[in-house]
Protein 1
Amino acid sequence: MSVKETMTDGAAESSRREFVVGGVGSLCALGTMPALAHAAKGHDINCLDYSRSFLNGTRSFNSVRFWIESRTFIINETTGETQVFYQCASCKSENTFGEKDLFYPDNYDFMPIFGGRDREDLVIFRRHVRITADYRSVTKSNDVWGKPVLNLRQAANPRTLDTWEAIRDTTAAATPIVSRTTIRNPETKLRAIIECPVKTMNISLDKKMYQVDTGPIAYPDLAKPADPLIECIRLAFVAFNAPHFADFVIEQPTPVIEDGEERCKIFHYSNPISLPAENQLLAIE
């Protein structure tokens, strides 16, 4: 029996409310959470404990569990609707439950992102050694692993790091840090909040500067809204060293140049862009 099957409708709804308003841990179904639209405006969305947050499938043939590596909120500032997307850890193409030869010889990276309005949108990235047509495919999670269930753990007491000294000392203390980057598009009236654990933090004691460099994340192209919204999401890394801008490098077809000539194209993180942003760092005690 899956975790979701042990919950009544009332319990499931209660869990969804707990996910929005707080609590040390919560279990909830995946999807749109309108109450977050208000919370997002004040940067007071509860922060995840990424070391203990997972997404589970519900199909009996493979009740897969994915580690959640980041989440992205997309807020429509006209309607107030918020959609949430969960970027899961990458794995390799595999002969699942085989008797031997568990990795496919023509192997590729495999990464899913779940979310959307109907609690069932799914985009899968398959990065082969060469460019292929199935690099990015949008489908429904029900058709692959069944209705997804979120096993989320909220950080108990996230603390804002709002000074250089606080960032320096928290980094030196090996305390987990989560970043939150907000970007906006005034033409489409879309706003996104990208939250992720800081995997790499650079500290310059000489310059009294920090620099976050982390990913992959679910990066939404807010200039190109789509229906479903998951269509506008790409994989990226984010870097910032100030509260007012962020740079992104996005995975895309990238030419390999040798001796001034293009030899081939591969999927690679390339062509950095810089956007106005609001950046926040949180210590997770």
Protein 2
Amino acid sequence: MVFTHVKTDVTSENIQMSEAQILETMDRCKNCHESEYNKWKASGHSAGYADIFLHETHNKTEQLNEDCLRCHGMFYSGTTADLVEPISQQGPWKLKEPEKATQPTIPCMACHQVHAPGEPVRKPDYANPNNIFYARNLPNNSVGFYNRHEKMHFQLEKLPRPDMVLFGDTVQTPADPVYRLCVQCHAPLAWHEVGTSDDHTPVGVHSGISCNACHEPHSNNQRNSCDKCHSDVSKNCKLDVRTMNTTYANPASANDIHFVGCVNCHPGQKMKSK
């Protein structure tokens, strides 16, 4: 592979891999990253083309369009019209390339860059253990968002921190750069209103908390998320927050954990200030 790259294209600075090569490389990733791969496979991010583009309920609600590939199939070289037919809200729908049915639409390289900028890791100064933390250089972060139009990854620090609003008021968004990555796909509608489209920017009691505070990387599992910040019994409510009527405990709850406030669980009560 190295010989072919150097021999055939010495001058190019932007080597592009096809989707087939991406998937082949991803199949090799799991040889070393088996735990991460299995967690990804158990998550919603492992959905195949048939799961996304042949979803009858979604296709009848929102017509398929070119922007679907921005998050679902960002390495696909064609258009949505090349992938599925008909482009309408009237099915039945079918893939023009049936072999793509089980291929993942969000492979590892959607969020991980193979070659990322950074500095080599330095060995700590064991003679001064108290300075190990302060002397440690920043890790080589391979996480970034792949933009199919630019055909390149954008590092987290280069992604914009979005300005979000709720009922006309500005919302405090998480400072963690990982949130900037998540919101590229879990995005609001054009006017940046929290909770619109697929946005899950936390507000209410969880305002400012990053996605990674509750969702585990790769698996997106949030089963143990409450334990990270809450003890068994809340200091303010004197209740076990894990049993409250929110979507954490009950998916049918009207109190979405991303938007829940004190009054959702305590209607009509005035909360005491500290």
